[in-house]
């Protein structure tokens, strides 16, 4: 039956992961609305708290599995992970407060790298280190 809708396993996996990513973004949207736009430290603390919630933990575990496959060069893992990262970068960009009037936020890539690195630390049992990094990044950015 699935072969009627999907040409192969990769197409099915891509569609499934895209649907899962959409559900995660919808949950993040509910926790952190676009307006008002937030300074880097405020958004960082809000996103970190949201990712620690029980409702988002399963998504983050799946994300680490997907990223691991992408790191090994597996397809469609690499393409899908790249699309998800691009989508999260766009999500962050529209929520970050511009550094000055009329300028788009330039800290979105740093934000993405920070969240990803901290989540990896948490996943390998170094959650306290990740939490202290959030506090340090937030205090330096204020």
Task: List the defining traits of the structure above.
single chain, 142 residues, mainly alpha, 7 helices, globular
Overview of this protein structure:
This protein is mostly helical and 142 residues long. It has one domain. The chain has seven helices and no strands. The chain has helices at 2-5, 9-31, 40-51, 57-71, 77-93, 108-123, 127-141. Helix 4 packs across helix 5 (77-93). The chain is globular, with a radius of gyration of 16 Å. 20% of the residues are buried.
Large-scale geometry: globular
Q: What is the arithmetic mean of pLDDT?
A: 91
From the N-terminal CA to the C-terminal CA, the straight-line distance is 55 Å
Strand content range: under 5%
What is the N-to-C succession of helices and strands?
HHHHHHH
| Helix/sheet category | mainly alpha
Major sheet details: none
Number of domains: 1
Query: What radius of gyration results from the CA coordinates?
Result: 16 Å
Strand segment tally: 0
Low-confidence stretches are none
Number of helices: 7
* Share in helix: over 70%
Give a brief rundown of this model:
The chain is built from 7 helices and no strands. It is mainly alpha-helical and 142 residues long. It has one domain (6-141).
Topology, element by element:
Layout: H1 2-5, H2 9-31, H3 40-51, H4 57-71, H5 77-93, H6 108-123, H7 127-141
């Amino acid at each position: 039956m699935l072969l009627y809708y999907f040409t192969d396993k990769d197409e099915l996996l891509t569609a499934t992961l895209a649907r899962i990513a959409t559900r995660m973004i919808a949950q993040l949207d509910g926790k952190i609305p676009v307006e008002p736009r937030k300074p880097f430290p405020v958004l960082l603390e809000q996103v970190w708290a949201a990712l620690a919630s029980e409702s988002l933990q399963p998504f983050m575990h799946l994300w680490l599995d997907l990223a691991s496959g992408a790191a090994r060069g597996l397809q469609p893992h690499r393409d899908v992970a790249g699309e998800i990262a691009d989508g999260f970068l766009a999500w962050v960009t529209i929520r970050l407060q511009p550094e000055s009037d009329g300028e788009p936020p330039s800290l979105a890539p740093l934000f993405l790298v920070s969240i990803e690195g901290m989540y990896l630390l948490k996943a390998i049992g170094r959650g306290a280190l990740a939490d202290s990094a959030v506090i340090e990044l937030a205090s330096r950015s204020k």
